[in-house]
C-alpha cells in the first residue's frame, strides 16, 4: 500500500523539501500541502491522508488546534499526525500528544528519520524511537507539577478496567520499550504483547502507543523522573 502523506507547514520552502523527500520513496506519496491548520484538516478529509506531517506554529489555526480537530473527527480516525517542531523541548509537543498526535520529530532530523516516522505512524506501531519519545515526554511532564493534583482522575479510574498483565505491559510501553523488548522482559511472545497493547488501547480510548504513554503518566501509573 502507498502511504498518503499530507504536508502542513507555513513555510513553502520546507514543504517543497519534504515533498521531494517523500515522493522519492516508492511506498509514499504527497497528496496535499497546507499552509495552516484549517487547510490541513480540510485536505486530510478530501485527500484521505494516512499521515499528516504537522508544523506546530502556523498562522490562523495552528498545528495544535488542527491536531485536536483531526483527533475529534470520527471520519478521520485512521489519520495519524506527526508533529514537526523546531525545538526538541517544546511544551506544545506534549499538548499535541494529549490532543491525539501520534508523535513528534525535530525539523533538523535526518531524512531517513522522517521517512521512518511516516512509516511507523502509518503502521500504528511504536512511535518513532520509543525510548526517545518516552524520555522527551517524561521531561515535558516533569516540568509541571508531579503531585497527585496534576493527575487525571478519569484516566486513573479507567486503569481499573485493565488486567494485571495489561497494566504491566502498559508500564513497559511507557518505559519506551518495543513489543519485542517487552516480550523478552515478560517472557511471552511478541504477538501476546501486541494483543495486550491493543486491548489496553481499546479500554483506555487511546489512538496509538503515543497516547498510551501519555495516559500512563497522566494517570499516575508511571511517574516522570526529574533528573
Automatic annotation (TrEMBL):
It holds the Pfam family GerE. It comes from the Bacteria. Keywords: DNA-binding, Phosphoprotein, Transcription, Transcription regulation. Gene3D superfamilies: 3.40.50.2300. The modification 4-aspartylphosphate is found at residue 55. Residues 4-122 form the Response regulatory domain. One of its GO terms (biological process) is phosphorelay signal transduction system. InterPro entries: CheY-like_superfamily (IPR011006), NreC/VraR/RcsB-like_REC (IPR058245), Sig_transdc_resp-reg_C-effctor (IPR016032), Sig_transdc_resp-reg_receiver (IPR001789), Tscrpt_reg_LuxR_C (IPR000792), WalR-like (IPR039420). One of its GO terms (molecular function) is DNA binding. Residues 155-220 form the HTH luxR-type domain. This is DNA-binding response regulator. It comes from Streptomyces actuosus. The lineage of its organism: Bacteria, Bacillati, Actinomycetota, Actinomycetes, Kitasatosporales.
Amino acid at each position: 500500500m502507498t502511504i498518503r502523506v499530507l504536508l502542513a507547514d507555513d513555510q513553502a520552502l520546507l514543504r517543497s523539501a519534504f515533498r521531494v523527500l517523500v515522493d522519492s520513496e516508492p511506498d509514499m506519496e504527497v497528496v496535499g500541502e497546507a499552509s495552516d491548520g484549517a487547510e490541513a484538516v480540510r485536505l486530510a478529509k478530501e485527500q484521505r491522508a494516512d499521515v499528516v506531517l504537522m508544523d506546530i506554529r502556523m498562522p490562523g489555526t495552528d498545528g495544535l488546534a488542527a491536531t485536536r480537530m483531526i483527533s475529534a473527527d470520527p471520519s478521520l480516525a485512521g489519520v495519524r499526525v506527526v508533529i514537526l517542531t523546531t525545538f526538541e523541548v517544546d511544551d506544545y509537543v506534549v499538548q499535541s500528544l494529549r490532543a491525539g498526535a501520534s508523535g513528534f520529530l525535530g525539523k533538523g532530523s535526518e531524512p531517513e528519520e522522517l521517512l521512518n516516522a511516516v512509516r511507523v505512524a502509518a503502521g500504528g506501531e511504536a512511535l518513532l524511537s520509543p525510548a526517545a519519545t518516552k524520555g522527551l515526554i517524561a521531561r515535558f511532564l516533569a516540568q509541571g507539577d508531579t503531585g497527585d493534583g496534576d493527575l487525571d482522575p478519569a484516566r486513573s479510574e479507567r486503569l481499573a478496567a485493565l488486567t494485571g498483565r495489561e497494566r504491566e505491559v502498559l508500564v513497559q510501553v511507557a518505559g519506551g520499550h518495543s513489543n519485542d523488548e517487552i516480550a523478552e522482559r515478560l517472557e511471552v511472545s511478541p504477538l501476546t504483547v501486541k494483543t495486550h497493547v491493543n486491548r489496553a488501547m481499546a479500554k483506555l480510548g487511546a489512538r496509538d502507543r503515543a497516547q498510551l504513554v501519555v495516559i500512563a503518566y497522566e494517570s499516575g501509573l508511571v511517574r516522570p523522573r526529574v533528573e
